[in-house]
Specification:
Layout: E1 3-10, E2 13-20, E3 73-88, E4 93-100, E5 113-118, E6 120-122, E7 129-142, E8 150-152
Parallel strand pairs: 1-8
Antiparallel strand pairs: 1-2, 2-6, 3-4, 3-7, 4-5, 7-8
Length: about 150
């Protein structure tokens, strides 16, 4: 199986995780194209140059961002809420459950979103369980070949 790499930052603790993607087993041939499809799709080679420092733009609900040509940007979605982290050191996985705040008020006590990481390597001691109010940032790069979303809390 192909691995997608992601990072999760909890306070000053950093997790480097290789999340299992549901793809095909290693060594198996790529899947055949759907019937009637001829040709191939070429992917863009990621830009090796580091992304320059740019403006920080505070977007609002309904805003449209227009990218000209080969512009490369980072999109950060920040939300506050209560996070519950569960870490299994023996099986090397992390589960993060999040109850996001709603319109400036506390969450409803139900899980709105979850993140799971497998084959986790921990750079610092991590508790088996942690819960607290936090801000969660999901950072995605656009325009340079993409890549996995980086998660910070």
């Amino acid at each position: 199986m192909r691995k997608q790499f992601a990072a999760c930052i909890v306070g000053s603790m950093v997790l480097s995780a290789a999340a299992e993607a549901q793809t095909r087993p290693t060594g198996s041939p790529p899947p055949a194209p759907p019937p009637g499809v001829v040709g191939s799709i070429l992917g863009r080679v990621p830009d090796a140059r580091p992304m320059p420092d740019g403006q920080r733009i505070q977007a609002s609900d309904g805003d449209v961002i227009v990218l000209d040509d080969d512009a490369r940007i980072r999109v950060v979605r920040r939300r506050s809420g209560t996070a519950r982290l569960i870490y299994d050191a023996e099986q090397h996985w992390v589960l993060l459950l999040v109850d996001f705040d709603k319109s400036g008020t506390a969450g409803d006590g139900k899980v709105d979103w979850h993140y799971q990481y497998f084959d986790v390597t921990v750079d610092a001691p991590l508790p088996a369980r942690w819960e607290g109010q936090t801000s969660i940032e999901e950072e995605t790069s656009i325009g340079d070949g993409g890549g996995p979303t980086r998660l910070s809390l």
